[in-house]
Task: structure prediction
Amino acid sequence: MTSKTTESYSSKAAEPAVEPQEQDGGKDSTLADKIRRRAYDIYLERGSEAGRDLEDWLQAERELTADKSEALGE
Result:
């Protein structure tokens, strides 16, 4: 019985340690998610033509970083 109790506590103790790591990368993943969604929209706007995924990604990245720079007044 003691080993089951220890296993329960040890698995629960590990959970909170994972959450801060996810939060640290939260801002970057949010930008990456926005770029991913915009790149997909560009792909759809082009008629779903395959083989230009890098081009779509770079265009989306330029658009979103330009928007961010404009908002900061740069």
Remarks:
- The two ends are 63 Å apart (CA to CA).
